Amino acid sequence: MKIIFISLFSLVFLAGCASDKSNSTNNVIEEINETAITEQEQTMPTPVRRAEVCSIVASDQLPANWPDDIPFYVNSTLTSVKCSPNESDSYEVRLTTTDDFDDVVSFFGTNVADENWVISSLDDIGPYGYAEYKLLNAQKEGRELIIDLRHSGNQLPMGTTEIIYRERIY
Prior knowledge:
Layout: H1 2-43, E1 77-83, E2 91-97, H2 101-114, E3 118-124, E4 132-140, E5 143-151, E6 161-169
Protein name: Lipoprotein
Keywords: Signal
Signal peptide: 1-18
């Protein structure tokens, strides 16, 4: 009986020692992970905003919080601006241009990447009533940029491309 008691006591003691070491090891691992996460957060740039709240100053102007890192297609006409048009999007900005559709697509493919966005797709979505329709998706530091490019072709308004910008913040 004495041997069984000593054996059980030894097992409990050793188990206690082992759990102290694993807790200590877990604490060290946790501290290393926290340090790595903090260092990573310090190296990530913060999105540049002109204002904290989306606000429309005039119907022919971009929202007050239009990010500096979203390329704007200059040879276009602003047709609509909406703040929080749905639960997902921060804003929706619509433009039209009569420039060649391929030039518009090329502009966004190049300039979005130049602003350090990671383009996850630039897909041909199909006509959906348009001659051509492409959708660009790009991500950057907890943000998603969605740009719809819809070309009317021979339909009215003839030869017009509609550009729709949307941004989601996560």
